[in-house]
C-alpha cells in the first residue's frame, strides 16, 4: 500500500525531535535542533518540490588509522595561509557545538603517534585546509575520512627547534596536562589552570562560546 507523501512527512516530523531529548546537555540539544530544522527543510523540498535526481556516491574504502605516519600534520609557515581561515583559524562562531567534537579550545593534548604535546587553539567540524596539503598529509579525497573534527594545536617547543602548529584529526589526540611552551600561547590564552587547561582570551571565547 502506497502511503501519501504528506503522511510520511508528518510521521518523520513527529519522530525526529525525539533524538533532541536523548542528550542532557543544552549545547547538544541546540545542535540537534539546528540539524533537525535543516533535515525537515530538505525533506519538505523532496516531498513537495521538484528536486533534481541525485546519484548515490561511491562507497569510500576504509583508510588505515594513523595513515602516512611519517608526516606530522604540521601547518606550513606561509604568510596569510592561516588568515584565510584554514586549519581551524576561521573566525566564524562555532555555535552550536556538535556533540561529536570531543575536545575544546584551551585543552592540552598529546599526539597519539608522534607523542608531542600541545594546546588546542581552534577546531573545525570537518577538515578545512588547502587540498594540496590534505593530499600530501592524508591522501586523496577517496582515501581519507573527512567527517572527523580537526584541531589546530600549538606544539610545545621543548624538543623543537622552531615554533610549530599542527592540524590534527580527532582520533589522533588524547587529553594530557602540563604547561605548553610556545611564543603564541599568550595571544590566545590569559591563564593556565592546574587541571591542564588554558583559559581563552575573550575574543577567542566569543568564537567558541560552548568550549568549557
UniProtKB/TrEMBL annotation:
It comes from the Eukaryota. It comes from Panagrellus redivivus (Microworm). Residues 100-201 form the Hemimethylated DNA-binding domain. Coiled coil: none annotated. SMART domains: YccV-like. Residues 1-22 form the signal peptide. Keywords: Signal. This is YccV-like domain-containing protein. One of its GO terms (molecular function) is DNA binding. The lineage of its organism: Eukaryota, Metazoa, Ecdysozoa, Nematoda, Chromadorea. InterPro entries: Clp_protease_adapter_ClpF (IPR053189), Hemimethylated_DNA-bd_dom (IPR011722), Hemimethylated_DNA-bd_sf (IPR036623).
